[in-house]
Amino acid sequence: MKLELRGITKRFGALTANDRIDLVVEPGEIHCLLGENGAGKSTLMNVLYGLYQADEGEILLDDAVQRFSGPGDAMRAGIGMVHQHFMLVPVFTVAENVMLGHESTRLGGRLDLAAARARVTEISDRFGFDVDPDARIEDLPVGVQQRVEIIKALSRSAQVLVFDEPTAVLTPQETDELMAIMRQLKETGTAIVFITHKLREVREVADRITVIRLGKVVGEAEPTATNAELASLMVGREVELAVEKAPPRLGDDALVVEDLRVVDPNGITLVDGVSFTVRAGEVLAIAGVQGNGQTELTEAIFGLQTGVSGRIALDGKPLTGRSVRQVLDAGAGFVPEDRQHDGLVPEFTIAENLMLDRADGGPFVRFGALRLDDLHAFAAEKLKEFDVRAQGIHTAVGRLSGGNQQKVVLARELSRELRLFVAAQPTRGLDVGAIEFVYDRVLATRDAGIPVIVISTELDEVYALADRIAVMYRGRIVGIVPADTPRDVLGLMMAGEAPAAVAA
Description:
Elements: E1 3-12, E2 15-25, E3 30-34, H1 41-48, E4 56-61, E5 64-66, H2 71-76, E6 79-82, H3 94-99, H4 113-127, H5 142-155, E7 160-164, H6 172-187, E8 191-196, H7 199-205, E9 208-213, E10 216-221, H8 227-235, E11 253-263, E12 269-279, E13 283-287, H9 294-301, E14 308-314, E15 317-318, H10 324-329, E16 332-335, H11 339-343, H12 350-354, E17 365-366, E18 369-370, H13 372-385, H14 402-413, E19 420-424, H15 432-447, E20 452-455, H16 459-465, E21 468-473, E22 476-482, H17 487-494
Parallel strand pairs: 3-8, 3-9, 6-7, 7-8, 13-20, 13-21, 16-19, 19-20
Antiparallel strand pairs: 1-2, 1-4, 4-5, 9-10, 11-12, 11-14, 14-15, 17-18, 21-22
């Protein structure tokens, strides 16, 4: 089935998320929609899937204009969508999830689960998915859950399949398996739209590439295009993608974590006996699929978790059991993974956000009074130094782009006397230009002799910044390995395997 979008425009108030977008996807083609987060890719696909109604434009399937009032209409027309965040019921079986919303019944109105099981088995066998129709979703690895999403779409005779950032929660091996599945689907004549911002994956699997920037199509490219060419299309300027860093100048052990455990109020262990050391002047990257205890680990270091046991020490001084204020006063800087909820107050100005962790004393508060002239001078200096694109220091942070918001967080955290710097998902949602800037600042901090921890689910980022790599799986550190460890080895570790040759 041929898919064509003509002049699709979607507005949210004054924001034009999609601006007269044209797109054609042929049967048996993998068409990549490339662009940074916020470019309008997912909005466009949500229009296609009936979740949003376009303000202007048309959707055509095999040259026939379609009218979708909801996802049900899109599915009946032959469109399937595999979402970044899976739409599965964890306590249901695979077969129950596949039939959900499209239940077939037998005499007496009983659900025909046997037919659903048979359908799952048939599709699974055809594509080599190896999925048990009676397995509960909550018991399946993330990669298998994604296969269930694909089976759901194929069970409804989808001839156009949309994959929305499908590799965000996958290990490298699971990503490779997904690419093989996409090629199989392509061979059956399925038209595939692959939404991503990862250049390596685009060049590996796409037949054609359409690049979207700020809601508009800004160009098309062939898979033979270089990463630099694709990045330039995405951000509108040349970008230096290669990260050059000198060998680390290592100092003494600075941060020591021993047998750290975090137990939630329900008694569930989220961090399970984690131990590691970070030396002055090095970057320890903590890799792993999201949800394996990385968030709770960083929150424990900064006093944001209860139920913490074990030892955390910075320069020989204990941090375990200290308040957030005390940890910050000990010289720790923190870039949280969710900058909007945990790193900034969106309604506050840039200047106000830059003093959030210094509101109880110098240099901006003296004898209980705010020294506005000093704050404004400092904010203006940091606006320039960190290249924050804003009308001025009195602009509300919530009005800035994601990249500029992240620069405000970095400016605040890196402008203090630091003994430790921790950055969680430091470039999530940023364009490649902003990523370049963040990497430079992280490495400059390391080169100043400060111990750095980077928590990231992006392996390219881990390799770019790390001097050593720790991999977390289900609350434990599987191993700590050198920064040149092969990608396939890290992938095995991210799935819980710790080969003796690489285990710490």
